[in-house]
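Query structure, 71 tokens:
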């Protein structure tokens, strides 16, 4: 499910993404073992990547994304 602002604020301290900036792959760490989905959006709001994750750590391959800012 998508998060509202209150849920996002609550999760902010539980999620770490690194390195930033990224040069191809980056790591996702969470304090929560629940599964979920990571979505990446470009600067125009278009979803350009989605990956299901579960557990405490995942690696995300962003090699197919053009250089730019993502949310």
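Result returned for the query:
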């Amino acid at each position: 499910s998508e998060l509202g602002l209150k849920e996002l604020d609550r999760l902010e301290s539980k999620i770490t993404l690194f390195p930033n900036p990224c040069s191809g792959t980056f790591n996702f760490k969470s304090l929560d073992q629940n599964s979920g989905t990571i979505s990446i959006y470009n600067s125009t709001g278009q979803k350009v990547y989605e990956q299901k994750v579960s557990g405490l750590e995942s690696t995300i391959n962003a090699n197919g994304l053009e250089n730019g800012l993502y949310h």
